[in-house]
Alkaline phosphatase
Amino acid sequence: MPRHPRLSRRRLIAAASVGAATAVAVTLTATAGASDTKDQARRAIQGGKAKNVILLIGDGMGDSEITLARDYTVGANGRLNMDKFPLTGAYTTYAVHADGTPDYVTDSAASGSGWATGVKTVNGRISKTPGSDKAVPTILELAQKKGYATGSVTTAELTDATPAVLASHATDRSCQGPADMAKCPTDTIAKGGPGSIAEQSVNHKVDVLLGGGKQRFDQKVTDGKYKGLTVTEQAKKLGYQVVTNDRELKKVKSVKGGKPVLGLFAPGNVPVEWTGKAAAKGGTDPQRCTTSNPGRPAGTPELKDQATKAIKLLEAKQKHAKSKQGFFLQIEGASIDKQDHAADPCGQIGETAAFDRAVKVARDYAAKHPDTLVVTTADHAHTSQIVPLEAQPPGLSSTLVTDEGQQLKVNYSTNTPGKSQEHTGTQVRIAAQGPQAYRVQGVTNQTDLFHTVREALRLR
Ligand code: MG
Ligand code: ZN
C-alpha cells in the first residue's frame, strides 16, 4: 500500500522544492491508522499561500520543559496539544557577536529578532543589526504593509523581549518605557530615534496588544509630540481602546471603527497560574503542585482566553476593513522561561500547560480555517532536567508527584544555587501545520522561520 495514497509523488517533490530556505526531506510523521493526522500532513506539505499565521512561542520551552509538562499533566504516554502537529523539526537558536561570530547561548531578544527579521543579532538587542545597530524590518511590519491585521499576546510585559521584536527596534531590551532609556542613547525621541519599546509598539498601531507591563505604559513620554502624556494616553490618542481585566476584554469590540485594542492585565508580568515549592539544594519532599495562585488577581485573563479574543478581534478588524487579507498573530507563553530561571517546577509546568491550552485555541481555529499556518516553537532551551530519583545533583532539585501518581525528580543546575538559572544552547522543537508548514522539517535555523512566515503570507 502506498504511503501517501492521496498525494502524488510529483506533488510531494514540487512541495519540497518551493524555495525552501533549508533543504528538508518531506516525510509524513503520521502514525499508522491516524487518518486525521495524515490528512493534516497532506495539507501541510502542499505549500501555497496562508491567509493567516499564528505563531506560538513558548519562551524557554526546550524539550525538557515540554516533557516535564507532559509527564506531570497528561502522563508519560499522553500527548499535549503541542505534540499533535503533523510536521515537526528542530531549529538552532544561537545568537551572534558584533562581528557575526556565533554566541552559542541566546537570550530572548536575539532569538526573537532572528525569526522577526531573518537576521541574527547580539544578545539583548531588539530587531537591529549586531554590529552597526541598524533597524531591520520585521515580519509584523511587512505584514502590516500588505494589509494584514496584526496582533501580539503575551504573559510577560508587552515590552519584554519576545513581543518587543515584532514592532520595535532598540539597541537594548531594557529600554521598555520612556523612563528606561539609559542603554539606548540613540533610540530616544530627543535624539531623533523612535523612542522606547512601549511608545514604538503603540505608534505601530498593532491591532491587538494583550499582556502585562502596565507600569511601562504608565510612564510619561519625555519628548516629541506626546511629551507629558503617559504612553497609555498616547495610545488612546492614537485610537486604542485600553482594557485592564477579563471583563473589559470580553466587552471590547473592534468593529466600532476597527479601533486597535491595548490590554494591560498586570503592572509587570502576568502572575503565574500554578504555585509550589521551588527546587532546593538537596531536593524537596515529594510535592503536588497547587493549580492556583493566590497572587493572581481575579479578573486576570488566561492566555487561551486572550488568544481566543485576539483572533476574534483580528477577524473583525479585517471584516470591517473589507480586506481579503487575514492576520498575523504571535502568542507567547513567557513565564515558562521565568519560572525556569527561578527553579520553580510547579510555576513552570503551570505556565507550559497554560501555553498548551493556547496552542489548542490556535489548532481549533486552523481546523475550521485550514488556510492558517500554525507554528509552535520556543526561542531557546532552558535549565530543567528530569533526572533519576536516586540522583544527588549538586544544584537545586525537587521531587514531584505526577497526575499518574509517580515520583519525578527535576533538577536545575545551570548556575550556582541562589543565582538565576540559565538558558542553554541546545536546539529546540519547531512544529507546524498548514500552508508552508513542511519548511519546519529537518534541522533548520531560527532565522528560517522568518522566511517561512514571509513565504506563507507572500510578503516580499
Ligand atoms: Mg519572552
Ligand atoms: Zn530567560
Observations:
- Residues 1-33 have pLDDT under 50 and may be disordered.
- The chain has one domain: 52-457.
- DSSP finds 14 helices and 16 strands in the chain.
- The pocket of magnesium ion (ligand 1) is lined by residues 59, 108, 156, 160-162, 332, 334, 337 (CB under 6 Å).
